[in-house]
Amino acid sequence: MKYRVLIDANDEKGLVHKVSSVFFNYDLNILSNSEFVDKESNKFFMRSVVDGDVDKNELSNAIAEVLPKNSSVKVIEPKKKNIIIMATKELHALGDILVRHEAGELEANILGVVSNYDALEPFVSKFNIPYITVSHEGLERAEHETKIIEAINSFEDVDYIVLAKYMRILTPRFVEAFEDKIINIHHSFLPAFIGANPYKQAYDRGVKIIGATAHFVNNNLDEGPIIAQDTIHVNHAHSWRDMQKNGRDVEKVVLSRALKLALEDRIFIYANRTVIF
Amino acid sequence: MKYRVLIDANDEKGLVHKVSSVFFNYDLNILSNSEFVDKESNKFFMRSVVDGDVDKNELSNAIAEVLPKNSSVKVIEPKKKNIIIMATKELHALGDILVRHEAGELEANILGVVSNYDALEPFVSKFNIPYITVSHEGLERAEHETKIIEAINSFEDVDYIVLAKYMRILTPRFVEAFEDKIINIHHSFLPAFIGANPYKQAYDRGVKIIGATAHFVNNNLDEGPIIAQDTIHVNHAHSWRDMQKNGRDVEKVVLSRALKLALEDRIFIYANRTVIF
Amino acid sequence: MKYRVLIDANDEKGLVHKVSSVFFNYDLNILSNSEFVDKESNKFFMRSVVDGDVDKNELSNAIAEVLPKNSSVKVIEPKKKNIIIMATKELHALGDILVRHEAGELEANILGVVSNYDALEPFVSKFNIPYITVSHEGLERAEHETKIIEAINSFEDVDYIVLAKYMRILTPRFVEAFEDKIINIHHSFLPAFIGANPYKQAYDRGVKIIGATAHFVNNNLDEGPIIAQDTIHVNHAHSWRDMQKNGRDVEKVVLSRALKLALEDRIFIYANRTVIF
Amino acid sequence: MKYRVLIDANDEKGLVHKVSSVFFNYDLNILSNSEFVDKESNKFFMRSVVDGDVDKNELSNAIAEVLPKNSSVKVIEPKKKNIIIMATKELHALGDILVRHEAGELEANILGVVSNYDALEPFVSKFNIPYITVSHEGLERAEHETKIIEAINSFEDVDYIVLAKYMRILTPRFVEAFEDKIINIHHSFLPAFIGANPYKQAYDRGVKIIGATAHFVNNNLDEGPIIAQDTIHVNHAHSWRDMQKNGRDVEKVVLSRALKLALEDRIFIYANRTVIF
Asked: Which domain holds residue D181?
């Protein structure tokens, strides 16, 4: 049996030794191993992939026993996670995820797509993935969000909600309901150009580089822990619409990269930052 | 004779034709030619390098005659420009410029280095470049700046002032005195992390990319027209001091790149943006 | 009427003037204009986008008249070009093109997909695009290629053939039949790792960067004029299969970028190189 | 006391456990820890930085005892390493190292510079670093190299020889005399453009990207284990001399990066590859 072991603990001398002792005692093979200690906050992070014959809960308990109190241990059996994608009208980021899914690149089941428009339904339906349109027209934000939550809850065991250019602001109620589960792509190099139409903002500021940021949404829309970022060069000849077009290539790659990291249990969230192994 | 011709005009039909007619009539060879029209503001920019036997002023007047009123024409004979470098205590950006100068990479005479500390004097004196320390200790900002301006004005025909990690804020008085002549390197990807200690800010925000921005200083410190930017990837294992160390490599490369563009008369400033050929 | 004007001529004094005179005489508005002179070979390249009321052939003839003999002038009315995609078993590059097409990002009609396997048919058929399987099993290379050419010729007015990871070597006969029309993505940074399994070669050499190259196929498979290249960093922890997985993201982006350049008539082919405006 | 512990062993179950037990028994604090297992060859690599009160040799022996036979253990006290720089006529790479040294960025003493020309002596002498010119004029390659080796051997305890654009081919005799100690910067993205004038080769091939490669020289000049690589974009407007100029910025950054990794004992050499922590 192969397991991913994720440990998040207060640091103290001997943690690697103690955890590796447990692996050794259970005769487990360590396939890969990464650790990081944040000196400033005295926090220890470890991700190991181990292989061997042991019960998942037994292993988890054995590790917990050698760790300081208040530590977190997760022993995860690698399997496909369930994701829901939210989008508005733009196809590129959603399309990239669907093609990767089709190509077997993602450890994921796509349960469905939820959108405030029906614009992407013809595309999504090609892939036999349920598409739920929840129009915001004529609805208060709270009402609309209630319906969105209902749509999401119509699926079971949702591991991640991927905002693939979902262009509506989410309320704290929504965000709290899916803590550490919402991954957003923001179409700028955060924290530059927070808010609406970042490409227009970037153009007006005369930047020579634009970027995209994938992050968890745990609070305000553009302020959660960053998972991945990338940038491309632009020049004076690019109008803001050109920047937007070119930016889409970065957006889709960064979002898909972040999603993969999440699906492979490589991300620790901590102090509004991420540790990524 | 080789000339760089820089034209900045309101756009109208036939400008390329009219300007190239002048070149043709003077039997000039066009070595390179770039144009850009900003549709939004109806502005036309052109930079040509021409070769031939013509008087500089005559050429300039002939071009001005075919352009709309209020156009700007510069006919520049390529030669070394005079620069002053300002720095505080960090060596990397200043050192990079001095080594490039030594290697003959820059079309520049370095008139002198002005600093608020004497920390870099031993290094600069190796290169037989005057070093003027203007300590800010015990001085009001205005008093200090008056002395800095005096130091700069002790040199003649200054074309550019390069802020190679000069860590003091400049007042509008200073900036206005050297309009379009001050090039600064800001140690972040502007407009993210404006202000003090951007690496600490970047670390706290948990970014996965850091950058540097070279820009003209025409107003507030971090808000002038951007000339060049670049970025590098960082990760959770980088403390803010690591980011600072790695960031220096980007800072020095971006500043030197911007300086070269300025020395080669490749930059138009316009609406707080730059057009770069 | 909007036209793209592409000129390829032996350089001589006054070409810009002469061509812009023609535009001026026809009262055309120049929307964008790029020139390049290759000093070494004395060649002049120009691409203009002009807007105005003129007959295409008349404009073409008027320009040809002012150019040296043996020059090439193309006046192109922007419209969707017809492309055929060839693939083998990998989905990522083909999928990226199909999604971009669906999103309206490409100035192209996709006439069909031709493959030596039926593996990608289920995917392609979702998009109502004809899929022709031409198995190479039991066939000599020449026989197989004859059938491939028949499949391609079953479509009309083919502008470009895009090899989206088509993993069979093409013979000179094929290549000559579609000169300057075949765009290939090679899964390495050419000219490194020419030939089979470049990721394995890259791994064996211990490189720290991998790349992809989009190029025209005018002769030997990996030796035509390069259109676009890009690279990503890898490290010791990447097996060659990891490199292959990560490399796919570069491959698809580079191929799509090259295809766009071709569709927008931005590429001149010359001396086994490309000039790209 | 702080130590860097470098382990290179055949992999077997429990190695992390066994080594961390030693650290634990000596009451050492693990400041950072990286491991990598190369499955294909069954090799285990580990680099730990530990802090505590223990004798260096005692620690080394204690670790060796728990490892399989034929393992390599190095316990290194961090201190400045002694380097010699070899150059020919180009200043940029050498200059970058000297400025970094001056800025305190390098854990190194620069013992001297050895060159086949005196061109760089005026620059190097500014820094009070010995400069030895060993002209190759009128000498057979073997004779010249004997003199170079004598010049190098006039310094004591040389840890690394840095070829900062030393443009002469080294013989196997030289290379064997300084195994795993010679770091070279090759002015191309290896293995593309091996041999003379890679920028000319790159230009002729019409590439859209150029690069630089820092590597150990253990055999043929361009074939040793790669430490670091980077690339930049170029276009049709770049002559090969422009590529050369722009390439210098990459060369110097990549060489300095590789040198730092070596000075910080972060590199394992293995099967003509490097593992870098």
From this structure: 81-276
> Has B159 been annotated as catalytic?
no
> Do both C110 and C68 map to the same domain?
no
What single-letter DSSP state applies at residue C277?
A: -
Residues of A in contact with B191 (CB under 8 A): 192-193, 205, 207
Q: Which residues of B touch D102 (CB under 8 A)?
A: 91, 95, 123
Q: What is the CA radius of gyration of chain D?
A: 21
Interchain contact, D102 vs B90, CB within 8 Å: no
Q: Cβ D208–C225 below 8 Å, yes or no?
A: no
Interface of D with B (CB under 8 A): 90-92, 95-96, 98-100, 102-103, 105, 123, 126-127, 245, 248-249, 253, 256-257
Residue A7 host element (H or E): strand A2-10
Same domain, B173 and B251: yes
Phi, psi of A250 (to 5 degrees): -70, -45
Residues B255 and B164 in one domain: yes
Which candidate in A8, A96, A222, A265 is catalytic? A222
**Which of A22, A54, A76 is at the close of a domain?**
A76
Q: What residues of chain A lie within 8 A of the CB of D24, using their CB?
A: 13-14, 17
The CATH code of the domain that includes C18 is 3.30.70.260
- The pTM assigned to this predicted structure is 0.96
pLDDT score of C221: 65
CA-CA distance, B25 to B15, in Å (whole number)?
15
Establish whether this prediction's ipTM goes over 0.90.
yes
Residue D88 shares a structural domain with residue D123: yes
Query: DSSP letter string over D94-146?
Result: HHHHHHHHHTT-SSEEEEEEEESSSTTHHHHHTTT--EEE---TT--HHHHHH
How big is chain C by its Cα radius of gyration, in Å?
21
Name the residue of chain C whose CA is nearest to A99's CA. C95
pLDDT in the model for residue C54: 97
Residue-wise pLDDT tens digits, A23-62: 999 999 999 999 999 988 999 999 999 999 999 999 999 9
Q: Tell me: do D58 and D145 sit in the same domain.
A: no
User: Last residue of some domain: D15, D42, D76?
Assistant: D76
pLDDT tens, residue by residue, C177-219: 999 999 999 998 888 888 788 999 999 999 999 999 999 998 7
Average pLDDT score over residue span B201-220: 92
Question: What gap in Å lies between CA D164 and CA D259, rounded to an integer?
Answer: 11
- Number of domains comprising chain C: 2
Q: Which of B38, B222, B230, B265 is catalytic?
A: B222
CA atoms within 13 A of residue B254's CA, in its CB half-sphere: 31
Whether residue D222 sits in one domain with residue D115: yes
Chain D positions in Cβ-Cβ contact with residue A66 (cut-off 8 Å): none
| Catalytically annotated residue among D222, D230, D242, D265 | D222
Q: Choose the closest CB to D33 out of A16, A21, A23.
A: A16
Which residues in chain C are closer than 8 Å to D227, comparing Cβ atoms? 208
CATH of the domain at A233: 3.40.50.170
Separation between Cα atoms, residue C119 and residue B42, nearest integer Å: 52
Residues of D engaging C, defined by a Cβ cutoff of 8 Å: 36, 38-40, 189-193, 205-209, 211, 225-231, 235-237, 239, 271-276
The residues pairing with A269 across neighbouring beta strands, listed in sequence order, are A274
Residue D21 and residue A16: Cβ atoms within 8 Å?
no
SS (H, E, C) D217-247: CCCCCCCCCEEEEEEEECCCCCCHHHHHHHH
pLDDT higher than threshold 80 for residue C152? yes
DSSP strand pairing (B72-76 vs B2-10)? antiparallel
Q: Which residue does chain A place closest to B237, by CA atoms?
A: A36
